[in-house]
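Human: For the file, kindly provide a plain-text protein record giving the amino acid sequence and the backbone structure tokens, at your earliest convenience.
Assistant:
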Amino acid sequence: MDITIKELEDYLYDHYKDKGIDESLFMKLVEEIGEVAEVLNKRSGRKKTDEEDLKRQLGEELTDVIHYTLAIGALNGLDMNQIILEKDKTASIKYDHKINLEQFVIKNRNKKTDL
């Protein structure tokens, strides 16, 4: 099943609207970023690891980062989908990318409908 950013935002808003506090969610976000760093350190050999599934762990920790990031955005009424597209357009110009995110998505969607 694929989900959209909007669907995830709506879900997280519904989940946190009565109990979500920006500061506590931000602290969780920082904690999760630290956990991503720990997994990356293990993968690179900078930190000892037991026989762990580091790929799975990395995916789970990155999911937590996305979760708390979008929860903070949702509680503050931000349309992260639109913000992501606008920020990418700016970065695409700044860094001279040959295609921006919106163009990429449209191109890929058109390929799928042409099949």
In short: The two ends are 20 Å apart (CA to CA). The chain has five helices and no strands. The chain has two domains: 1-78, 80-115.
